[in-house]
Specification:
Blueprint lengths: L8 E8 L5 H12 L7 E5 L5 H5 L8 E6 L2 E7 L7 H8 L4 E7 L6 H12 L5 E5 L8 H14 L4 H4 L3 E5 L4 E3 L10 H10 L12 E3 L2 E5 L3 E10 L1 E2 L4 E5 L5 E5 L2 E6 L2 E5 L2 E2 L3 E5 L9 E3 L17 E6 L15 H12 L6 E4 L5 E6 L1 H14 L4 E3 L3 E2 L9 E12 L3 H10 L3 E7 L4 E9 H4 L2 H8 L5 E11 L11 E4 L3 E2 L2 H7 L3 E3 L6 E2 L3 E6 L5 E3 L10 H8 L11 H7 L4 E5 L4 E5 L4 H18 L1
Parallel strand pairs: 1-4, 1-5, 5-6, 6-7, 29-34
Antiparallel strand pairs: 2-16, 3-4, 7-8, 9-11, 9-19, 10-11, 11-18, 12-17, 13-14, 13-19, 15-16, 15-18, 20-22, 20-23, 20-24, 21-22, 23-35, 25-27, 25-28, 26-27, 29-33, 30-32, 31-33, 33-36, 35-36
Bound molecules: guanosine-5'-diphosphate.
Length: 615
């Protein structure tokens, strides 16, 4: 049977670098063509969107919105802003029939969007290019156009992809035109181009239902939400259908709701049919790649790409002496529940129980992915401890491989030397070095992910906040052997108490401190970086014997260097295997895994002995 096409539907994704104006443009499109068609919508549902995701410019879960233009429903699917989630990018792009590449007319295409663009081109999609923010005073739309063309050539675009339709636009002023000199009326020309250029989706509406879950969400009221493109057939609320998982799991369930998105709102739709991108609820369990299909004649579809985790760390219930003083959720039961809840919608995350009931091994796509989860948990009131992040190797011995990232760096001339040196130390291999205009240099590297852990904040301070760095997962490649870690030992507290200026003053010559005057500390807590390579037991609470009154006055004048307060990311990168980060809603503390000094010594000796025996 020849595939039919749904001429009343178009599915597109928008690819844009953060700040290039995607939100503003989509808002403009919603203004112009926001309404659903009559009879499509039942009810409006609650909005959802994780504030932390937005704040960080990452949309881990692809969000959809729909507009109706000249009787045609245009589904707009958001691409994940961060290319670490390559599998998600690919699954999203497979739901659509074309992409709109949105580029700031002043900045031109940015390295971060290169990955998603490359994927789109590889999948054979023919992009529409929109040079946006043409109203900017510093806009250079023709240069931006040229840069996009060169980018496509560099990404080995096919002839017909290079022949892309292009519009100039200002999302803020709500207009789009084919030529700069054309009259600027509204965003209509862009929507017209979508109708003309984007192929309508194949849509065998009368065939049995088949829809593959490209991405998912979970909601306390609605339960699992499956998002995907209906490949064939149709479905409506109340119908019984089958969920079939490639591993053989089957569930017959009744569809409770079919949801459409518009802006940040969800709407209940009267139904969904082949060619459309919809969200479906009602199943009791859900995974990406599951197939929703008809009970009588179930369809099978090829498996989908899922992101394998590249980095792992342990999450543990907090056992520090200060446990429970700053957070509300502190037990291992809380931790277990929270992590298992996260698994329902965080597709690239894995959680495994370990031998210890208090410890869970959590793995994901890079430190940022896990960092976002930890930050979210802090905000929710959790206390926990985490072990150093470790990359996940594949294979053994000579065939061992490790994850590599591609890194694009823009820096001022004077920082080029130091950055190159540091990247070398971290195992980076330079691929390109180019002038980036205005006295800046662009450096492109391929680096083992292991070497980059914690580099972001160091890079920012090394370039006094002026450097720009983009990184994303590239591939698994040859293991390059050990990378040098921290050279220095740490200061470890030997007595619980409250720090004072006198003691800190005496310590600061030999160390950089992580605490200030008047802070409570516990035995085994790490309060500074030793200038030497060994650990040192210290007492930051030690007071001076008061021999006369003047001493006190003198103490007031002790000048303390401001402490270094590591961020979560810095703390994760800082600690060694025998150390942990204690995370609470208010604090980030570093500590030894074994708090008691003599117990720690014994464990260390036992370990040395074991290693000696092995050798
Ligand atoms: P997003 O991060 O891609 O979603 O970008 P936003 O839509 O949030 O816009 C980022 C910034 O660019 C905001 O400050 C907008 O006001 C501004 N902006 C968006 N569209 C335009 C435009 O067409 N012209 C100008 N001059 N600024 C714009």
């Amino acid at each position: 049977m020849a595939a039919k096409f749904r001429d009343d539907v178009r599915n597109i994704a928008i690819i844009a670098h953060v700040d290039h104006g995607k939100t503003t443009l989509v808002d403009g499109l919603l203004d112009l063509a926001g309404a659903f068609r009559r009879g499509e919508v039942l009810v409006e549902c609650a909005l959802d969107s994780n504030p932390l995701e937005r704040e960080r410019g990452i949309t881990i879960l692809a969000k959809c919105t729909a507009i109706t233009w000249k009787g045609v429903r245009i589904n707009i699917v958001d691409t994940p802003g961060h290319a670490d989630f390559a599998g998600e990018v690919e699954r999203v792009l497979r739901m659509v029939d074309s992409v709109v590449l949105l580029v700031d007319a002043a900045e031109g295409p940015m390295p971060q969007t290169r990955f998603v663009t490359r994927k789109a081109l590889e999948l054979g999609l023919r992009p529409i290019v929109v040079i946006n923010k043409v109203d900017r005073k510093d806009a250079d739309p023709n240069k931006a156009h040229e840069d996009v063309f060169n980018l496509f050539v560099a990404l080995e675009a096919e002839e017909e992809q290079l022949d892309f339709p292009m519009l100039f636009a200002s999302g803020r002023e709500k207009w789009a035109t084919y030529r700069l000199e054309d009259e600027r009326v509204d965003l209509g020309p862009l929507l017209d181009e979508v109708l003309r250029h984007v192929p309508p989706p194949p849509g065998e509406v009368d065939a049995p239902l088949a829809m593959q879950v490209a991405t998912l969400d979970y909601d306390d009221y609605l339960g699992y939400i499956a998002v995907g493109r209906v490949q064939t057939g149709k479905l409506a609320p109340g119908e019984r259908i089958l969920l079939a998982r490639p591993d053989g799991h089957r569930e017959e369930f009744r569809v409770t709701k079919i949801l459409g998105f518009q802006g940040l709102r969800r709407f209940e739709l009267a139904g969904g049919a082949a060619g459309e991108v919809v969200a479906v609820t009602g199943m009791s369990d859900l995974k990406v790649g599951d197939i929703l299909t008809s009970i009588e004649s179930p369809a099978s579809l090829p498996a989908m790409v899922i992101d394998e985790p590249t980095i792992a760390m342990n999450f543990m219930a907090n056992t520090s002496p200060f446990v429970g003083q700053e957070g509300s959720y502190v037990t291992s039961r809380h931790l277990r529940e929270r992590l298992w809840r996260e698994l329902r919608s965080n597709v690239a995350l894995r959680v495994e129980a370990t031998d210890s009931a208090d410890t869970f091994r959590v793995s994901g796509r890079g430190e940022l992915h896990l960092g976002v989860l930890i930050e979210t948990m802090r905000r929710e009131g959790f206390e926990l401890m985490i072990s150093p992040p470790r990359v996940i190797f594949h294979g053994e011995g000579a065939s061992r491989t490790e994850p590599y990232e591609e890194v694009v760096i823009d820096v001022d001339e004077q920082y080029v030397g130091p950055v190159i040196e540091e990247m070398g130390r971290r195992g980076g291999r330079m691929e390109q070095m180019l002038p980036a205009g205005l006295g800046r240099t662009r450096l492109e590297y391929v680096v083992p992910a292991r070497g980059l852990i914690g580099y972001r904040s160091e890079f920012l301070s090394a370039t006094r906040g002026t450097g720009v760095m983009h990184r994303c997962f590239r591939e698994y490649g040859t293991y390059i052997g050990p990378i040098k870690g921290r050279q220095n030992g740490v200061l470890v507290v030997m007595e619980e108490g409250v720090s004072n200026a006198y003691a800190l003053f005496n310590l600061q010559d030999r160390a950089s401190l992580f605490i200030g005057n008047g802070e409570r500390v516990y035995v085994g807590q790490i309060v500074g970086l030793n200038a030497r390579d060994s650990d040192m037991l210290v007492n930051p609470n030690k007071t001076k014997k008061l021999t006369n009154i003047r001493t006190h006055a003198h103490d007031e004048m002790l000048r303390l260097t401001p402490p270094w307060r590591p961020t979560l990311e810095q703390a994760m990168a800082f600690i060694n295997d025998d150390e942990l980060v204690e995370v609470t809603p208010k604090s980030i503390r570093l500590r030894k895994r074994i708090l008691d000094a003599s117990a720690r010594k014994r464990a260390e000796m036992a370990e040395n002995k074991a290693t000696a025996l092995e050798e």
